[in-house]
Specification:
glycoprotein, Pnp Oxidase, Chain A, 3 helices, secreted
Length: 135
């Protein structure tokens, strides 16, 4: 009933093992998830990350979703991780989210990553600054 409309979802992500962050978001997904089915048809996606550990919000005991807290939005294309990167994606995901090792294998899990095209930093009530992907 919402075919063709944007659809949000919460997915586990990792940008690398704990001591080797890359800035590239990796996801462990199943084709049984409607979000993944949609991404395989139209790979454009956005990802917003709140300032969960920043000094301002933590020091002032402010909810990370409060507009005064910084958030980073990444947009780009979601792609299946190529075979030569699967081992890294596996280390990245399993080191940060060990519970996924126990997920049922019958769900045909695989790895996707976001090829980031745009980055925006919102630092205060709607003030948005673009950041070069190279940075």
């Amino acid at each position: 009933q919402i075919q063709g409309m944007p659809y949000g979802n919460c997915l586990l992500l990792s940008d690398g093992p704990v001591n080797n962050s890359t800035g590239i978001p990796f996801f462990y997904v199943t084709p049984k998830d409607n979000t993944v089915t949609d991404l395989l048809k139209n790979p454009m996606a956005s990802l917003t990350l709140p300032e969960a550990d920043g000094n301002f919000c933590r020091k002032n005991v402010i909810d990370p979703e409060d507009p005064r807290c910084t958030r980073l939005t990444l947009t780009g294309q979601m792609v299946t991780v190529p075979p030569e990167e699967v081992e890294f994606a596996k280390q990245a995901m399993f080191s940060r989210h060990p519970v996924v090792r126990k997920w049922p294998r019958s769900y045909e899990w695989f790895f996707m990553k976001m090829n980031i095209e745009h980055i925006w930093l919102q630092s205060w009530y709607g003030e948005v600054s673009p950041i070069a992907v190279e940075e």
